[in-house]
Amino acid sequence: MTRTIRRCTISLAALSLFTFTAETRAAAPVTPPVSSAGMLTAVEGMTSTILQEKQSSFSGIAFRARLQPASLIKEVELMPTVEYWRNSNTAQPYDIHSSRTDATLGCDARYVFKEQGWQPYVGAGFGIHFLTSKVEAPSLGITNGGTSVIKGGLAALVGASFGLTGRLDNFLELKYHHIPEYRQLKINWGLSYRL
């Protein structure tokens, strides 16, 4: 068993060395890669305070990647995003329970201004929102009532990123989702890990 592991390790090391020397002998690319991971430059996680039309504020979470295709200028990044929030309320004396959720798949493009110590940015995008509203009010004769709708909406964002360590940044962002009858303003805070 140990001999097999040793052979696999030596084989992988030889293959890595061969690949590295072949790459260094190859002609230099016209556009150098933006990170060791290729066009994927960072992954981000964030929390949100959401202000939705006709609702009080509540919290959500999101994850996104930052991509920098070689065909775009280096200040422009694409950010595919997955966002989710859930808001629930209970009126105990009346036995009324309601909840609203929004699961969003979106993609934003942003322009980053390179400044010393921090990086402000502006952007816009589009998202598909999977919205669900549920209500249970047995005392009113409503059991398991609800609606689900899928809506597309434009988004606009502005924010700034601040370096923490070599690869870790934090950011603060304001993002507006224009969804008819479900408009949302989000205050996002998150961490970014640069690859």
Overview of the structural elements:
With 195 residues, this protein is mainly beta. It has one domain (33-194): Porin, CATH 2.40.160. The chain is 12% helix and 62% strand. It has one helix spanning 2-25, and strands at 40-52, 57-67, 76-91, 96-112, 118-137, 142-163, 168-178, 184-194. Strands 1-2-3-4-5-6-7-8 form an eight-stranded antiparallel beta barrel. A hairpin with an 8-residue loop joins strand 2 and strand 3. The longest helix has 24 residues, at 2-25. The chain is elongated and about 60 Å long. The two termini are 35 Å apart. Residues 4-34 have low confidence and may be disordered.
| β-strand amount | over 45%
Low-confidence stretches: 4-34
Number of domains: 1
Helix content: 10-25%
| CATH class annotation | Mainly Beta
Largest β-sheet summary: 8 strands, antiparallel, barrel
**Helical stretch tally:** 1
Rg over C-alpha atoms, rounded to the nearest angstrom: 23 Å
Strand order of the largest sheet: 1-2-3-4-5-6-7-8
Give a count of the beta strands, DSSP E runs of length 2 or more: 8
Alpha-beta classification = mainly beta
CATH architecture: Beta Barrel
* Rough outline: elongated
Averaged pLDDT:
84
Topology (SSEs and partners):
Blueprint (H helix, E strand, L loop, with lengths): L1 H24 L14 E13 L4 E11 L8 E16 L4 E17 L5 E20 L4 E22 L4 E11 L5 E11 L1
Antiparallel strand pairs: 1-2, 1-8, 2-3, 3-4, 4-5, 5-6, 6-7, 7-8
Give the structure's gist in a few sentences.
The chain has 195 residues and is mainly beta. Helix content is 12%, strand content 62%. The protein has one domain: Porin.
